[in-house]
Automatic annotation (TrEMBL):
Annotated ranges, domain PH: 282-387
Gene3D superfamilies: Pleckstrin-homology domain (PH domain)/Phosphotyrosine-binding domain (PTB) (2.30.29.30)
Pfam families found in the cross-reference section: Anillin (PF08174), PH (PF00169)
Protein name from the UniProt record: Rhotekin-like isoform X5
Organism expressing this protein natively: Biomphalaria glabrata
SUPFAM superfamilies the record matches: PH domain-like
Cellular-component GO terms for this entry: actomyosin contractile ring
GO term, biological process aspect, one: mitotic cytokinesis
Source taxon at top rank: Eukaryota
Length: 466
């Protein structure tokens, strides 16, 4: 009888549900503390770049809090109504690790702006949020986006763990238009020095104006900082997983008047979305099996076997797994059929047949477990492995390379530009020294990013920024 993916009983996960709810509540409490700390740093920040970074982190924390509270409420409602999450016949498919990298957003400036170097000198600060369920990570912020740039390139590598096969990854693009006071790098040195002297001597009111704030941005003594607007969003699914960089649609957001943001987005973005299902890197089931010899059906050879990465790998003993290559590998793919062994050719009890058809022909292997319990374990394992392949589809065709995660670096607050700028069409203007060239050693910047680094570790440390 052929192996059919059947329905199995799900264990009572009431204890796991309670632990998960407690974990969500702890995350909410942590993000609230992070938000309070970031707000205090925002008030104490003197440099515009610091204010922007703090405002970005504040928005990210608020977004996570909303996501956590929404999920907690959903779970409480489902618990009251007695609803259970439905999966394929109550059998859980494996999850996967996702990697997002090479994010690039093309810009579409007017001809007069980009090529003729005319028009106003608008500048923007841009970053992205990436969401999968309650897991939310932000990219680094690209400041001083101006008409000389053909695209916005993010060097971040962001990882998501334990992602289900039916995931939806949302990408949101946030933008803040830098006020004229923020663009002092383009002013003459004397005027820039005068502005700096004023902002450092007259106190909070001028500092607030230089930070692009207004009275509506202050609640009590908590300064909320510059406002980032959601200007575009996109979504990615399993069908978008690929081992190379691809182009996807970007939906532009409109304001109350029905107009899109003035940042000249092209309506597309590029990225590499790689997936690594756990069934490709973690054994579904392991144990001893007896393999019937091809030349003599009465002889059997005992192997230590591991079902992983679309094959059943066999060694002489479990000690050899990490030392040598498997002595035998039996394909277990979407075209594999698993059935009871033919009793006329296999006299051994607890035996089964693995039959695989591929371009090289038809391959049959007869194996036997030691006990009925072991047979059931292997039978369930093969069901699980075939289910994982069926649901993860092309993501199981190869082991995709997930780019290595690197630790978050302190931002240098320098403008990142496109590779196209290696061959400029015009001679670039010399705008002098940057107002924020000394921020890398600033104490407030160190405090801010130490705080956010601790937050990343508490959330799991799966977001990495180059």
């Amino acid at each position: 009888m052929e192996c059919i993916i059947t329905v199995s009983e799900c264990p009572d996960d009431s204890g796991g549900s309670e632990d998960w709810d407690n974990d969500l509540q702890q995350k909410i409490d942590h993000e609230i503390k992070m938000r309070e700390g970031t707000a205090r740093l925002l008030v104490a920040s003197k440099h515009p770049a610091q204010v922007l970074e703090a405002a970005k982190n504040l928005l990210s924390s608020n977004t996570r809090i909303i996501a956590y509270m929404t999920e907690l409420q959903r779970r409480k409602t489902a618990e009251v109504l007695g609803k259970q999450s439905s999966v394929e016949g109550n059998q859980l498919p494996c999850s996967a690790q996702l990697s997002v990298s090479d994010i690039r957003i093309p810009l579409m400036w007017r001809d007069a702006d980009h090529f003729r170097n005319k028009g106003d000198y608008r500048r923007y600060a841009v970053f992205c949020l990436l969401k999968v369920g309650t897991e939310i990570y932000d990219t680094s912020m690209i400041s001083d986006v101006d008409r000389s740039m053909t695209d916005i390139t993010f060097e971040d590598v962001i990882h998501f763990d334990d992602v289900p096969h039916d995931f939806e990854m949302k990408l949101e693009v946030y933008c803040h238009k830098l006020h004229e006071e923020f663009s002092v790098a383009s002013t003459p040195k004397k005027l820039r020095k005068k502005i700096n002297d004023i902002s450092g001597s007259v106190g909070r009111s001028v500092g607030k104006r230089l930070s692009g704030l207004n009275d509506a941005d202050v609640i009590g003594n908590m300064v909320l900082g510059p406002k980032f607007e959601l200007v575009a969003k996109g979504s990615l699914h399993l069908s978008d997983v690929d081992n190379s960089v691809r182009t996807y649609d970007l939906q532009l957001e409109t304001n109350a008047e029905g107009q899109v943001h003035e940042l000249p987005l092209f309506g597309h973005y590029c990225c590499r979305l790689a997936a690594l299902p756990h069934c490709l890197v973690q054994p579904t089931v392991t144990g001893f099996l007896n393999l019937q010899e091809d030349d003599d059906l009465s002889k059997w050879k005992r192997y230590w076997c591991s079902l992983k990465n679309l094959q059943l790998s066999c060694w002489s003993s479990p000690d050899d797994v990490e030392v040598i290559q498997p002595l035998l590998s039996i394909p277990v793919t979407k075209s594999t059929q698993i059935s009871d062994a033919d009793p006329t050719t296999s006299q051994k009890s607890h035996s089964f047949l693995i039959k695989t058809v591929n371009i090289n022909g038809i391959f049959c292997h007869t194996l036997a477990a030691d006990t009925k319990e072991e047979l059931n374990k292997w039978w369930d394992g093969f069901q699980q492995h075939l289910l994982d392949q069926a649901l993860w589809k092309h993501a199981c065709d190869e082991v995709m390379d997930l780019k290595s995660a690197t630790r978050r670096k302190l931002p240098a607050f320098v403008r990142k530009s496109s590779l196209y700028e290696d061959t400029p069409l015009i001679e670039p203007e010399n705008n002098g020294d940057s107002l924020v060239s000394d921020l890398g050693n600033d104490q407030l910047t160190q405090m801010l990013h130490t705080l956010m680094g601790e937050a990343s570790q508490i959330r799991g440390g799966t977001s990495s920024q180059s």
